[in-house]
Amino acid sequence: MNQHLLNPPFSNRRSKGQHYEQQARCFLEQQGLLFVCANYHCRQGELDLIMRERDTLVFIEVRFRASRDYGGALSSVTPAKQHKIRHTARYYLMSQQINEAHQACRFDIVSYDDGQCSWLKNAF
What we know:
Blueprint: H1 3-6, H2 13-30, E1 34-42, E2 45-53, E3 56-65, H3 79-95, E4 104-113, E5 116-120
Parallel strand pairs: 3-4
Antiparallel strand pairs: 1-2, 2-3, 4-5
């Protein structure tokens, strides 16, 4: 694949994030997931992607690292970040009037390291 497409030049951090979130969405849709929402924001935090796989609501964190020098993209989802994502997901469910006791949920990470895409289901 063309390296320029995997690592195109970006004007700022937000445009880089949007690019990789769009790449992740396309990849996950090819895997059969259905798009629900992108960039859900609330006071608790942000959810990059929310998708559905059959009866499961999937909250996806998208991470990018140009190199693995500092542990890579996966390791950047720290326990504190995981806690924030869980808290934001609970708020999303409440705001949508979805009873979390009756809705299967999962937390996945789609990471990009050195242009390589990885998908970790049930990451935390």
